[in-house]
Known about the structure:
The complex is a heterodimer of chains A (about 425) and B (about 100).
Chain A: H1 2-22, E1 35-39, H2 43-55, E2 60-65, E3 70-71, H3 76-81, E4 90-91, H4 94-98, E5 103-106, E6 109-113, E7 118-121, E8 126-128, E9 131-134, E10 138-140, H5 164-175, E11 181-186, H6 196-211, E12 216-221, H7 229-240, E13 244-247, E14 257-259, E15 264-266, E16 271-273, E17 276-279, E18 283-285, H8 287-291, E19 316-318, H9 332-350, E20 359-369, E21 372-383, E22 386-389, E23 395-396, H10 403-425
Helix pairs in contact in A: 2-9, 6-7
Chain B: H1 2-6, H2 11-33, H3 36-39, H4 57-69, H5 77-81, H6 86-101
The structure holds flavin-adenine dinucleotide.
Flavin-adenine dinucleotide binds near residues 45, 66, 196, 330 and 333 of chain A.
Amino acid sequence: MTKLTRRTFNGLLGTAGLVSAFGISGCANGPAGPHVVVVGGGFGGATAAKYIRRRDPNMRVTLIESSKVFHTCPFSNAVLAGFKDMAYITKSYDRLASAHGVNVVNDTVVAIDPAKKTVTTKGGATFTYDRCIVSPGIDFKWGALPGYDQAASEIMPHAWKAGAQTALLRKQLEAMPDGGVFVISSPGNPYRCPPGPYERAGLVAWYFKQKKPKSKILILDSKDAFAKQKLFMEGWDKAYGEMIEWVPANKNGKVLKVDAKGMVVETDFDKHKASVANVIPPQQAGAIAFAAGLTDDSGFCPIDPVTFESTRQKGIHVIGDACIAGAMPKSGYSASSQGKVAAAAVIDLLNGRKPVAPSFINTCYSLIAPDYGISVAAVYEVADGKIAGVKGSGGVSPAGANYQFRKKEADFAEGWYASVSQDCWG
Amino acid sequence: MKGRLAIPTIALAATLAVPAIAQADTRISIMADACNGCHGTDAASPGSMPGFSNKKADAIKKALMEYKAGTKEATIMNRIVKAYSDADLAAMANYFAAKNAK
Ligand SMILES: Cc1cc2nc3c(=O)[nH]c(=O)nc-3n(C[C@H](O)[C@H](O)[C@H](O)COP(=O)(O)OP(=O)(O)OC[C@H]3O[C@@H](n4cnc5c(N)ncnc54)[C@H](O)[C@@H]3O)c2cc1C
């Protein structure tokens, strides 16, 4: 009964949405150009949808997104630390529809047919496209880490997709007694947001320092080194002394097994009992990328670096965390930058023009404390058929900088967040 | 304008010239749009990042060249501008100024 009602409702909504957003094809009002369907309204998909409409108002764009609102992972570590709230990281789709004329559909895509050029949703609606852009982000490889499945993530949250998991981990940290041990299990490469686990450690330390100063943070790592490592360690040392301990893979840090009920995290020789455990599991492209045949053996999607068109399925472009983008890390800034390039390429291809050589930027600001920021920035181009950093540019913040410099970068981190939120969804 | 005059006078070349110019514009617009992630769409920053949507092309150009020369105080722009040729920096400055003049 419920299912039937929902199906009918969504089916109607899909059609009604199309008509009101675009007008009936051939009418004086509304665009009548080619139709692009964007799957996923995160950093990559929202940007692609907005920038297609900005570049060419004749294009029709439908954005299909599972969630009614989006919770950003950027600044979710600040929510864990308690100096930002969930409202701060919640984004609405209203402006994509009202200001940019994107037909926003709240549904989940379950199939893409590259031969028929159709997208089918869980709600039962079918959309025909001229080109499709897919930006589903990541999914977790449940079970790849023995003992860690979806049920275990309700006890040992990953909080690597923002929203309910963020709220759950925050609640656990608040309930933790002073003197407890917060364990973070950090995955091997590649994964979403390489500096993310380390930003999390620092900001939770900031919270502990004020509310539970006898507590400890133990980072068990599947890697021997990590992004902005020198800067993080300099900052942790200055701000938190001994509170954070990092154990690399070569010092027996790699987590091999977890026991969620017993709150135990196991490495080769050690069993660590945690008060609160944050297990960040191995990752792969979002499920729809598998369903549509876009992934390779790595679990991510190979693409043409100029257009982001899948090398597996014609007419489907993959951007963001789900795609294999050469030297670009999996970040929100990267996904958004790729969304702009894919938008321009799709417009060119649909108009019979050759796409131009693209240019990208990535930036990741990380906070060590609310007033202590560090950054990495890079500009990318396509060289020898691969996305590579432009030589002689980019890099990380200087080591040993003074308080004013770190404070400035912390302010710019918030400024970046305001800008990127506006650039993607505003 | 300059590009169009430089094209040989044969008719075929003249018809090809239009897409070539459009392509150059597209390349610069893609390059410049990547800056919006920090500066906001069309550099109209909504928060604590400096915006420059109210600046004239010359002022933007001047700032970018000074970041490149290392003579203007910066936390991050110095690392970014080094990736671009002087001509591309100037073209991006023109692009932002023209967008915001509309
Ligand atoms: C703790 C943490 C901190 C981070 N901090 C930063 C930072 O400071 N800066 C930065 O640049 N990046 C940061 N990131 C990384 C950033 O969150 C991701 O790289 C970014 O979200 C990737 O964008 P995307 O478009 O690929 O995927 P997402 O943003 O995850 O968007 C995917 C969307 O697709 C939807 N979707 C998926 N499948 C379907 C389907 N079948 N049908 C309909 N909709 C679907 C999902 O609901 C989701 O909304 C951080 C990540 C974490 C975990």
